[in-house]
Structure formats: C-alpha cells, structure tokens
Amino acid sequence: MQMTAALSRGPESPFTLETVQIDAPRADEILVRVVATGLCHTDLFTKSLLPEKVGACLFGHEGAGIVEAVGSEITHIAPGDHVLLSVRSCGTCRQCVDGHRAYCERSHQLNSSGVRTDGSSPIQQNGAPIRAAYFGQSSFAQYAITTADNTVVIDPAVDLTVVAPLGCGFQTGAGTVLNMLRPKPDSTFVIFGAGSVGFAALLAARTAGVTTIVAVDPVTERRKLAEEFGAVTIDPATDNVVDAVRAATDGGSTHALDTTGIGAVINQGVASLRARGTLAVVGLGAREVALNMADIMLNGKTVRGCIEGDSDVTTFIPRLVELFNAGSFPIDRLVTPYAFSDINQAVADQASGKVIKPVLLW
After folding, report:
1. Which end of the chain is more exposed for a tag (fewer CB within 10 A), N or C?
2. What is residue 345's three-state secondary structure?
3. Do 148 and 64 share a structural domain?
4. Strand 253-258 relative to strand 188-192: parallel, antiparallel, unpaired?
C-alpha cells in the first residue's frame, strides 16, 4: 500500500514528505493508521548519528492512531481500536521476566536495528527497503506496522493528539518519578531541563503529593509554566544553581532528574543533592562525565540511569491515561499540534524552546 512518510536522508538534511510502500501486516503484526506522532529528542538524536550513506530512514516512536488490520495471531487488539505505540520488548529475557521490560536484552534488535527480526523492512520505496521498524513502529508516516508488545489499546474518547507522547517522552519523565525515584510527599524534587520529559516528571511528582518541586531551565516561558504548576524556578543563566537549589529545598534535594545530558548540569544535580539523595539521568548527551566521587561516596549519594521510565508500557500507559482523564496529569498544556507538512518547523520550534512538545498530525 502506498502512503506518505517524513523521511530523513542524513544528519544535516531536513525531513522530506515522500511516497513509500508499506507491507500488509504479517500474522504477528498490526497495521495502524497514524493520527498523531510526538516529536521526540530521541528521533533527532538518532537522525544525527546515521550518516547519509545508510540511505533513507523513517523515524517516529510516539505514534497514536486507529487499528486498520491485524494478523491472524493477534488476539486482544482489533480493527477500530484506538491505540498508543511505544517501545518494543521481547517479554522472555531476564530483564523482561523480572518486570523491567525497558531494559530488554533484545532492545537494540527490536527498536533500533532498522529492520524486523528477520532482517526485512516493512517499508520500501521504489522496491528498495528503507531503514524503518524504529521502536517497532516508525510512525512518522500515515501508517505503521506494529506488534502486540508495543501497541496499547486506550479509551476511544481520549484525544490522540494529547496522549501520543505517552509512548516515550511523557512516559519517561513520569515513569522515572513514579516507578524509579518514588518520592514521598515530604521529599524535595528538582528537575534540570523543563522540556517535555521534565514537565511530565513535574506533573507526576505532583500526583505523588510532592509539594517542594524546583525546575531549572534557561527559557523564561518554560519557567513561567512551571511556576503555574507550583514549582519554584531557577534560571541557570543568572543564578548560582547549586546555592539556589539548596535554598529552595532546605539544604538540598532528596530526588533530582537530569534531562539534559550535559556534564556540567549533571554535576550541579549531584552537588545540590542532600546526603543520601538520588539523581536520575535520562538525557542523551555526553558519553562520559567526570563526577566528584568523594562527594558521592561520603554523602551516600546515588546517580542512576533510567530508560523509558522503567515502565511496562502495557500497564503504565493506561495508568497515565487514567491520571490525565482524572485531571491530575494535565499534559494537554504541554502539547502544540503541527501538520506533518510542518515537521521541520516543529523541529526548529522545539530546539528554540518556543514549544514544549510538538505533536505532528496527518
């Protein structure tokens, strides 16, 4: 079947809307008509790594849509279901069996190899395969081939434009708080980087009853919105971040989240923890960072990575949808819709800080 897709042809090239062909679903696959897809930093980070010589690539991993067809082995998902698309996991490796599917031992093969597990691509152009199957979906297109493990059925009354980013960005922020850090109401929580992941973490901390929340971000509009959500804000361009965090948290934070991946910011996060505090890092950035190990050891501090909020998407995404429906997780205030034809403008607006979460619509 022919469809339109937003393709990448190299790190420096813009996305281009082109005609491609998509396979019919195999026995264990699902064909989804994509309604909306969140634009995530991970899409752009991966785009920046793949050279032009690998050919056209189809990204997109925060898809939301309506099921068009299912293979014969699919039993709990049916045509007409409204679904959110997320990260794949095998369900059988040690990490999956232990309840930590975000750390699936086959994650690279299932999510970022560019092909199905048999080496084929579900997307072609003029008979040639395109690097696709990104996060088991490649949802920067009008249709996506998915599987049961990364396709989550939701209430059809929910606006797919708003909840599409639950597939990755919003799930990462909220899950890091609710599944991994698990702050208590008397905890103090600091977010370094108030983008889509940071704001989802802020809102999740509110649902956990945390009252002392601090957001560190250089963009004025983002700090204003964080203040509307009840956070104390710090401008890293003008404030001494560590001193300001300590002042706002009665001596240091018990929990913190870095979304930036910037070494200097990570160090601010560690330094501003109180004794036995924990910093979670979720940003793709510097591969190596020098840390003050004496501070970490002598004060019992923890620095820990987290992928996809340490979530099981089949249970955690519905939980977040329930929180949104209840009015306690107002992610609709974070989303700005764009037509897919404006994808490059969405990229620019996200990079400049003009918007928090662009969501692309067909």
Report:
1. N
2. helix
3. yes
4. parallel
Rg (CA), the chain: 20
Q: How confident is the model at residue 284 (pLDDT cuts 50, 70, 90)?
A: confident
User: Are 139 and 191 contained in the same domain?
Assistant: no
Query: Which of helix, strand or coil describes residue 20?
Result: strand
Q: Establish if 353 belongs to a structural domain.
A: no
> Is residue 333 domain-resident?
no
Asked if 72 and 175 sit in the same domain, the reply is no
Q: What is the 3-state secondary structure (H, E, C) of 178-234?
A: HHHHCCCCCCEEEEECCCHHHHHHHHHHHHCCCCEEEEECCCHHHHHHHHHCCCEEE
Q: Are 235 and 281 part of one and the same domain? A: yes
Stretch 266-284: mean pLDDT: 97
Rounded to 5°, the CA angle 329-331-336 comes to 170
Residue 285 included in any domain: yes
Does one domain contain both 95 and 152? yes
Do 342 and 359 contact (CB within 8 A), yes or no? Answer: no
How many domains does the chain fold into?
2
Report d(CA 73, CA 118) in Å as an integer: 17
pLDDT at 286 over 90: no
pLDDT band of residue 281 (cuts 50, 70, 90) is very high
Give residue 265's Cα distance to chain centre.
20
Tell me whether residue 319 is in a domain. no
CB 57 within 8 A of CB 129: no
Which residue, chain included where needed, has tokens 């930093």? 41
- Is residue 195 located within the same domain as residue 153? no
Dump pLDDT digits (tens) for 300-335.
999 999 999 999 999 999 999 999 999 999 999 999
Whether 145 and 176 share a structural domain: no
Exposed/middle/buried for 34, CB within 10 Å: 0-12, 13-18, 19+? buried
The verdict on 6 and 150 lying in the same domain is yes
The one-character DSSP state at 334 is: G
Give residue 98's pLDDT band: very low, low, confident or very high (50, 70, 90): very high
- How much is the pTM? 0.96
Residues 6 or more apart from 185 whose CB is under 8 A from it?
208, 209, 210, 211
Please write the tens of the pLDDT for every residue from 224-238. Answer: 999 999 999 999 999
Residue 85 phi/psi, 5-degree rounding, is: -110, 140
